[in-house]
């Protein structure tokens, strides 16, 4: 830290992204990316792009893409906000709506407390129940900005729209943000509820089901006035934060929606198959509605499995939070990748004398 940094950031602990090592070729099951490429229509749109156009700024309104997403989700363009990945939207939302503090479950996405600290938003974490299910009653009437991931990360567990509605209805004077990064893998989206609840903000991303993590594109759906608030902050920060290429490819991906829906189905089918195999090896995990499994094996510390798999060229995610020490989060890859993962897991269990 230099002596020039504002003292209010001295104690800030930044978010730790999943590792992206370059020392060798890994089977990468650690950051919940899609194992499949973007839709052929997206590739085609990229190939047809005239690079000379990059001399021009991107459309700060992102009008074409907003209209397409509005059409897809049954709302108006004025109900859509676009930003540089959904993390960017979370950042603006904590900045915009955290005046009275924030509440979110724990464990959940470990970026929420970082955004709260960054913006000086006091926060309270509501523990999940013993079985990792959401304590819906404790998220009702919080009296402050309320954030939840549905499905949750890193557990993969989802709640139904009835639970979301209860939370939204009970906090009429506060924004409730539902982070639906993983909703396309078996969850239920709250998008349709934005027409009834002006305090609901639904946040989605192109990073997971749409295979475009590297393009950095997230969007939020909500009441026109909520979207205007976010636009105000975006236009006070970086109006061009979604680049020209990403706007174009993002629109092409909406046209190719059946492709990503099909991919999500493939990933769900792989998840079910791998789940059965892992159970056969003595692993347990919550019922995932996401593109990952949050696994635990009696007698095998999470860190050991993580480390031994890494030595064998398979990366999974282990968390530093001591409450999660027994667990690892494993992204669902292709059938072949998951076959290789299982083979190595079996070998490690044998080595440890656990099978
Ligand atoms: N929300 C959750 C729950 C996530 O796991 C992630 C991915 N790390 C994000 C939001 C952010 O995704 P992105 O910024 O790539 O849209």
Q: Compute the average pLDDT.
A: 97
Which consecutive residue ranges, at least 5 long each, have pLDDT under 50? none
Helicity range: 25-40%
Q: Mind describing the biggest β-sheet?
A: 7 strands, mixed
Distance between the termini: 48 Å
The hetero compounds bound to this protein are: 4'-deoxy-4'-aminopyridoxal-5'-phosphate
Number of distinct beta strands:
12
Question: Quick gist of this model?
Answer:
The chain contains 10 helices and 12 strands. It is of the alpha/beta class.
Molecular structure report:
The structure is a single chain. The chain has 355 residues and is of the alpha/beta class. Helices cover 35% and strands 14% of the residues. It has helices at residues 40-47, 63-73, 86-97, 111-118, 161-170, 224-234, 244-255, 257-280, 302-311, 335-351, and strands spanning 27-28, 80-83, 102-106, 123-127, 145-149, 176-179, 200-205, 218-222, 283-284, 292-297, 314-315, 327-331. The strands form three sheets. It has a seven-stranded mixed beta sheet, sandwiched between helices. Strand 3 (102-106), helix 4 (111-118) and strand 4 (123-127) form a beta-alpha-beta unit. Helix 1 packs antiparallel against helix 7, helix 2 runs parallel beside helix 7 (244-255) and helix 3 crosses helix 6 (224-234). The longest helix has 24 residues, at 257-280. It starts with 26 loop residues before the first strand and ends with a helix. The model has no long low-confidence stretch (mean pLDDT 97). The site of 4'-deoxy-4'-aminopyridoxal-5'-phosphate (PMP) has 12 residues, from helix 3. 4'-deoxy-4'-aminopyridoxal-5'-phosphate is lined by residues 85-87, 109, 149, 153, 179, 181, 205, 207, 213, 218.
């Amino acid at each position: 830290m230099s002596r020039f940094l504002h003292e209010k950031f001295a104690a800030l602990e930044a978010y730790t992204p999943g590792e992206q090592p370059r020392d060798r070729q890994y089977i990468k099951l650690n950051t919940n990316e899609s194992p499949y490429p973007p839709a052929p229509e997206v590739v085609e749109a990229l190939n047809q792009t005239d690079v000379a156009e990059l001399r021009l700024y991107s459309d700060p309104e992102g009008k074409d893409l907003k209209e397409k997403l509005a059409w897809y989700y049954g709302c108006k363009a004025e109900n859509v906000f676009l930003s540089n990945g959904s993390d960017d939207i979370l950042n603006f939302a904590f900045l915009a709506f955290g005046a009275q503090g924030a509440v979110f479950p724990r464990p959940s996405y470990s970026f929420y407390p970082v955004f709260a600290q960054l913006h000086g938003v006091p926060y309270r974490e509501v523990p999940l129940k013993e079985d990792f299910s959401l304590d819906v009653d404790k998220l009702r009437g919080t009296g402050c900005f309320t954030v939840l991931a549905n499905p949750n990360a890193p557990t993969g567990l989802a709640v139904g729209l009835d639970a979301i509605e209860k939370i939204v209805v009970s906090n009429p004077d506060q924004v409730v943000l539902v982070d639906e990064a993983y909703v396309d893998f078996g969850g239920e989206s709250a998008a349709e509820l934005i027409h009834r609840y002006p305090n609901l903000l639904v946040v989605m991303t192109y990073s997971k089901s749409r295979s475009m993590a590297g393009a950095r594109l997230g969007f939020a759906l909500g009441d026109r006035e909520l979207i205007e608030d976010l636009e105000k902050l975006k236009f006070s920060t970086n109006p061009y934060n979604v680049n020209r290429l990403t706007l174009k490819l993002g629109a092409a991906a909406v046209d190719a929606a059946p492709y990503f829906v099909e991919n999500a189905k493939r990933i769900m089918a792989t998840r079910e198959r791998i789940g059965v195999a892992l159970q056969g090896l003595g692993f347990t995990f919550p019922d995932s509605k996401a593109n990952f499994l949050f696994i635990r094996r009696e007698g095998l510390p999470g860190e050991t499995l993580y480390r031994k798999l890494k030595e064998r060229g398979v990366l999974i995610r282990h968390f530093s939070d001591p409450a999660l020490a027994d667990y690892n989060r494993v992204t669902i890859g292709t059938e072949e990748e998951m076959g290789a993962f299982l083979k190595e897991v079996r070998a490690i269990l044998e080595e440890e004398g656990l099978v």
